[in-house]
Design brief:
By secondary structure, this protein is α/β, with parallel strands linked by helices. The protein has eleven helices and 15 strands. The strands form three sheets. Strands 3, 4, 5, 6, 7, 14 and 15 form a seven-stranded mixed β-sheet that branches. The longest helix is centred in the C-terminal third of the chain and has 16 residues. It is globular. The relative contact order is 0.16.
């Protein structure tokens, strides 16, 4: 099978095409002929050698994320009548940057009719995390939510899902193109993160009370600047780190205003929960109520270019690989 493999930690250029043996389905697995591959910013960070304390990967390795595709073979304990030929998505860790993937059958989510495999791939991870975050923060109708990184793959989904829950959505993104996108997706108000005084502008939009929920998908200094915008008694989720680190908020500062601090560790889900949330997202997308924003698609052989595009932050929405 064809893969994109990281030969050593480093820049995008270390991600190169390679050939590996085709996978064979284990007793409770299927083999999926991959159509599209989900990419995440964290994949670029792991490739560069970051987050070794969280991800135990050593080169050479094939990055892992999520795929969409068609089941081509089934293991001895899998009913071929139920799965052979079905269009599915699945989380594949490691080894998703490949033309074939062996996947446990209980990790599969059927793709509904009317939804393309490209769009389905864009929902494998980001939709699951987005739904889990909204459940974790217990966002309710009538509350105000501030979303940083709102024009990214997950941010665009959060804007739509929060709006569907009846929340007032204030979206933070950088530049007019991205601001226009999140407006179109349902944000009630937008704030340009490119302005040095964006926290003050956000405060004026939010009002002195602040946001009931802050969903920080950026981290670093921007995430830290978003924390004071959380209302007393509100919830602050520091789940994103494309800046290189999660937003650092002292616990005592949060305690002083009764703010509940949440992080990426709070959205670690079981495979069963992931499948259930992914199925919910695919249903919403198939019905036209949730739209993944896909900014660029690269062939698998040009995975290095995809990583460079992700790191350059110029792409609006998701970057996918195509087999």
């Amino acid at each position: 099978m064809r893969v994109a493999q990281v030969g050593e930690f480093g820049g995008p250029e270390v991600l190169v095409p390679a050939e590996l043996p085709d996978p064979v389905a284990g007793p409770d697995e299927v083999v999926v002929a991959v159509d599209h591959i989900d990419t995440l910013f964290v994949h670029t960070q792991i490739r560069a050698g970051a987050f070794g304390e969280y991800f135990d990967v050593k080169p050479p390795y094939v990055p892992g994320g999520g795929v969409s595709g068609t089941v081509t073979s089934t293991g001895a304990e899998v009913d071929p009548a139920a799965w052979a030929g079905r269009r599915v998505i699945a989380a594949v860790e490691p080894g998703s940057y490949a033309s074939l993937a062996a996947v446990p059958v209980d990790h599969l989510v059927p793709v509904p009719d009317g939804l393309g495999l490209r769009e389905a791939a864009a929902l494998v991870h980001d939709s699951v995390t987005a739904l889990a975050l909204l459940d974790l923060t217990a966002l309710k109708e009538g509350e105000t939510v501030l979303i940083t990184g709102a024009s990214g793959g997950m941010g665009t989904l959060l804007v739509q899902l929060a709006r569907a829950r009846g929340a007032r959505v204030v979206a933070v993104a950088r530049g007019e193109e991205k601001l226009s996108l999140v407006r179109a997706l349902g944000a009630h108000e937008v704030v340009d993160a490119g302005s040095p005084d964006w926290p003050e502008r956000a405060r004026r939009v939010l009002g002195e009370g602040g946001a009931d929920v802050v969903l920080d998908g950026v981290g670093g200094a921007l995430g830290a600047a978003a924390f004071p915008l959380t209302a007393t008694g509100g919830r602050f989720s520091a789940h994103g780190a494309p800046t290189g680190g999660f937003a650092a908020v002292p616990q005592e500062e949060a305690d002083s205003r009764a703010v509940t601090l949440l992080g990426i560790a709070d959205v670690q889900l079981t495979p069963h929960d992931r499948v259930a949330l992914a199925a919910q997202a695919l249903k919403e997308a198939a019905a036209g109520r949730l739209r993944p924003v896909i900014g660029a698609v690269y062939p698998l052989a040009r995975a290095a270019e995809a990583h460079a595009a992700i790191e350059g932050r110029g792409v609006v929405g998701k970057v996918l690989l195509e087999v």
